[in-house]
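Q: What does the assembled structure look like for these inputs?
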Amino acid sequence: MSEPVKTSLSLKHLRALGSQYRGIALVAIWAVLLLAPYWMPPLGGYTALGTRVLVLGLAAMSVNFLLGFTGVLSFGHAAYFGLGAYGAGFALKFLAPSTPLSILCGMLLGGVIGAVLGALIVRRRGVYFAMVTIAFGQVFYYIAFQWSSVTGGDDGLRGFSRQPLDFGLFTIDILSNSNAFYYFVLFCFAIAVGVMGFILRSPLGRTMIAIRENERRARFLGIPVERHIWIAFTLSCFFIGFAGALYALVNNFADPRGLHYSQSGDFVMMAVMGGMRTFWGPLLGAAVFVVLQDYLSSVTINWMSFVGLLFVLVVLFFPRGLLGFIGTKREQ
Amino acid sequence: MSVLDIQRVSKRFGSLIAVQDVSLNVQKGELRAIIGPNGAGKTTFFNLISGFFAPTAGTIAFDGRDITSMPASQRVTLGMARTFQITEIFPELSVFENVRIGAEVAAGFRLRPWISRAEKTEVDRRVTDTLKLTGLESKADRRVGELAHGDQRAAEIAMALALQPHLLLLDEPTAGMGDEETYAITQLVRRLHRDSNFTIVLIEHDMRVVFHLADRITVLDQGKLLAEGTPAEIAANDAVQAAYLGKAA
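A:
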């Protein structure tokens, strides 16, 4: 049962190298994000595109919080994303003209409804779990679609816009200054992602990874699996509700299609394409998705078939996703 | 004082009675082996004890407390840990990370989204102690999925030990092992029993292991209690001989 000590030493060395790489990668990611308004326009992009990547990336990372780190696939997370958007829109339209308040309302609406429905969903597993999440998600899509007097129906919720940030001494105009808005969204993104990363490195986060790895073992290590999946589901709904609220601010508009299960599918696609076992993979997936959509939709109305084709290629040739692929390359 | 007191439990699956009227009493510090031919209901009996499913009839008391219908994860919290016949581990995680999950649950941290530096140091120390006890120190950073079978079994035992249990349930700890690995695991179980005073119930097929380790032996056959006694008594028992040799008793 004993093996040469040398092996484990050199492995330890490799691990140390790996964590060094991770540190560099982390700095690189934040540098790219912080400087996006400066490098995107010369490359033919525009800042609002970067804003969309951040918001949809955060949504995909929220889905992946469940899929990649708890091992549970939700196909109905667009519902909580859309609820976040409507929550923010309602707050701006009917409550008070405050951007932070609208984000808080959106996050609470998505998160609280997610918590309630999650309690009904977490006893299901696998395909059944995915089906129930779709079913609950579609309920909200049809409510938003049909209840026109409140939600605006097919036209979506309009008649609100994000408000300048008022700090008393000074205000930041995030409505007309797209760079200022980008940095505001990046700030929100950083908070959400920071909290997410913090949780995943905690004992609570480790119980989630334990459930992903082996549910039976987790249960017999004293982890009440259903309760922990519920916690993960609820947290992920708060995160995606937060992203949904930001999305309403991006568009000054809440779209019923944002609640539809095909939107959930897009989030799952971003997560899988980017690499669902990696923390940052879904952001990369969202970037690829958003950029392709922006570029291809101006060329052809069938842009989705090209995104689909790329998705198939990634799944076939990089089963661990784009970022997962880089990760395995490095380990070898 | 009895750690485990089981009174006449039965488990029925449809028309099949997998376990029928079996009673078992395990004293603190005892090492009890459960043996029996294939299909005797040993693993089903284990699953009843650990709460994998509830018995159709009978009662189970642990440390004097009725746990008959308590969920598995709660039994673990009370101090009952088990391993499985087919190794159940977290293959993608390192040995250290596998054991740490048990240590953090035992410390009551499973719902904590943060831990202090002091708490982390304490958890790490417990994990290291457990790894030393099971001889896995040098493999702490290895991924469990890539270890040899014997080391994976040891890692699973380490995960259970990290829970600091009052009762350790081992389902065929030497299943699928060669002689050398069997010897290593037997020595480990012996150390846990003799030196660390763990109360252990184990299912085992390898009779050398059973007679080497057990204080008392319980024999099941076709779901029923066939015999119970010291290794010497069981070796001399005619009914046990018959059950193993397939003769009518």
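Residues 148 and 181 of chain B are 10 Å apart (CA to CA).
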